[in-house]
User: Fold these one by one.
Assistant:
Number 1:
Amino acid sequence: MDELRRALRRLAKAVAVITSSYEGNRYAMAATAVSELSLDPPSMLVCVNRNASIYFPLAAGAPFAINILHHSQREIANRCAGAVKGEERFLQGDWTNTNLDIPRLGESQASIACQNVRQIQHGSHAIFIGVVDEIFVCGGVDPLIYLDGRYTRAQALEL
């Protein structure tokens, strides 16, 4: 397990905040285990630990949004990674709702709202598959990156 953790620290990933709304409550979780799945139909997947507060709403079938953070949104990532709990995670940032009534971060690089259509349980986590319902894009491409246990910024290489 330690060797796997060491290996995965070398995998750079964009930081996203997964959001959902269920029974009148909003949920948010910072994540890097997010990926595109298919362009036909347009689909995304998120991996969520069963101990995360957002797990229960997603397991119940609630829709979700993937908010891809800009490099300047480190504090929002920290808040949603456990620095604060519950509704306090939404006290910073420009939060609005999608057509599916899911919170989305207005100034994130992109937000992708999804209908939650399938889940796969595996070990400590579940994979939730969502069919894309709405897409929002804002500003240039400059994501917050998680690498080697810390946040960083991408640097474009000249070709």
Number 2:
Amino acid sequence: MATNEKKKIPVKEELWATPTSPGEEPQLIGSKCPSCGEVYFPKMLKGWCVHCQQPGLEDIKLSRKGKIASFTVIMQPPAGGFYKGPVPYAYGWVDLPEEVRVETLFTGCDFEELKAGKDFTELEPGADVELVIEKVFDDDEGNEVMTHKFKPVKK
């Protein structure tokens, strides 16, 4: 029997840990060097530290909350067709407590107001944000392609 249920697939494997029990939240997966303490995201696939050249990187789960380092709002789709999500979109960097900077899309912003020419105030450097996993687009087979994003923490 065929089902019309869409599958949710990650844009790239092993970027985040999916919750396995109620009450758990997704977390990004990084790498940490036990020799020098350097932290990387995404996790390093090679087993040595780029910073100190020592072997033995460990997978770690990163904090779910961070602060916006910088961002921009993209008002038109980029050439080449590599981004298939909605436009406009916000894109930038988030600093996590582990002293790693994560490249990310932002969500939870009122892009309709931005399109109407109103001020865009949901995002600002230094603002608190929280990790979410959301759909970025539907692939050719109708699956929902999921990615990590950060959204402003409501005060």
Number 3:
Amino acid sequence: MADQNLDQLKQKYASVLDLIKQSGVKLAHVHIQDNKLLIQGEAPSEDAKNKVWDKIKQVDPSYADLTVDITVAPGGAATAGSHVPEHAGAAAAGGMQSYTVKSGDTLSKISQQYYGSAGQYMKIFEANKDQLSDPNKIQPGQVLKIPK
């Protein structure tokens, strides 16, 4: 059953998987996890990662049957027109990570995962003010910057 579901989801997201190959994203995992297709890998740049997300949204704007965790390779520079704010370059050099919000996540929960303390959630909020206006309003699929 899982193999059949994997094949169906790979077919559905074939254009995304093709773009991933063309963009030089190094895939670590492509399998079924929690009845969703999990795609995990490392993009050579923020621009490549953004293009993958744009393609995912073209295939299925809700991507309810997909979990994607694509990080950017250390030194993976943002190129012109990418969605990275200017100040993120300095922060990335200081060890910024990214995290893709999943259903049921809160900034406190993410803070607990990365810092061992739910009370550090404002660190994540401050680093993502370019896309968040309220620390209580995050959406599945958003890619947050996680400062060290």
